[in-house]
Design goal:
The protein is of the alpha/beta class. Helix content is about 50%, strand content about 15%. It is built from 18 helices and twelve strands. A five-stranded parallel β-sheet has the order 3-2-1-4-7. A hairpin with a 2-residue loop joins strand 5 (about 220) and strand 6. The longest helix is centred in the first third of the chain and has 63 residues, at about 55-115. It is extended and about 95 Å long. Mean pLDDT is about 80; it is low at about 265-290.
Amino acid sequence: MMFDLQQALSIDGVVNFVKSWADAYIESDTVQQFVATLHIVMGRIGIPETIHPTADQVVLSTNITILTLLLYYHLIGRSHHSRRLQLTSDLHLAALRVLELEDLLLTQSKEENRKKGGGEVRIFMDGAFDMMHYGHMNAFRQGRSLGTQLIVGVNSDESITRCKGSPVMTDRERLTAVEGCKFVDEVIPGCPYVMTSDYLDYVIKKYDIDYVVHGDDPCVVDGKDVYESAKERGKYQSIPRTEGVSTTDIVGRMLLMTKDHHKRSGFEEDGAKLITAEKDGMKNNEILGTYSKFLTTSRMLRLFSVGVEAPEEGQRVVYMDGSWDMFHAGHISILKKAKEMGDYLIAGVHSDAIVNQHQGSNMPIMNLHERVLSVLGCKFVDDVLIDAPYTITPEMIASLKISQVIRGAATKTDEGLRYEHAINAGIYRKIDSPCDFSLDDIFERIQASQKRFENKIEKKKRQEQEYYDNL
């Protein structure tokens, strides 16, 4: 549409221009077709033609509605959005404060326990610890903080199967995982899943136990509290459950094939990107969790880093990197062997993006923060390199004073350029793992029994709800 600029700049010119534009818009084929369709619809539902809106009325009503929504968002909606963001921030800070208060309470309980025990206080915890993760490790850390020694009983395959269905991991695999945790002082194999009075007496007497400890979440079998006997004897203390992580959630990540749990990293080498993959038919499965709600704070990292010190002068520093996803018995076994190659072991943990670039699908199952905590909890690891570079450079070797770079023989990635500098420096070594267990084994076991796991999880939720309802 042609018009004079000077005329358009005047008030009358603007009014005339808007009117001309509106007339042209109302008479357009699109508007006329929409109004005709609207009249047909209104006629079919019995609305008299005398009250059918004209094209002018339809356009005016539409514009008023749009203007109203824009004004609402500008004047009210934005403030609501800001308020929601503030509430989210306040909730996050409150959750962190709760974690701090829980640890303070545990510290106070530890002092009280020491006064009662006159020195050494031996704590007993038991469980299946199937597919052991950093939540279990944090429970061990909290349990040990109530005393001076932590003794952990690992339920037998037979008792677990009888009470809640067969575990994913074998007795030996679960024992290796618990023995490899730095917060655990002693491990008792073959413990029953349900702690009877007779067994409790046996444990207290044989292992000189002061307190039996468990998380504050219910542990119910056939409608009965597993720790009722310990509570009746005054030998029971609870610790806060590690919120945001569970075996249920982790199984869900494997079955649903989502990547909502991944963390974006500042170190994404070689243009690493998260590859999209989704498993058909599992989008709407609401039984299982899909993402991590765990709050990884610098304080939590410090608590897991207890005992971490710089290598002493003259110590041989060994470096081994990897994804360390679903930290398991195979990882622990090879880290133990790597530690034997020197005096001080540094474990490098790759970012989510780098792991996903090389392994694809929804890998890694555990995000960077979760994997770092798992590796920090291993007794054979002296320090962890977070978001480790994929390629080992001369600068990195010099900075960390690395005397030997270790690679697992079963590692699927090629040696390529990433180990070139270590090879040229004569400090590269490939070793076999004492344990042939791998992440693929976990996947195969989970996927082979998918329906059973879903039913077991749903049954557990019902039992827990019944327990709370009867309180």
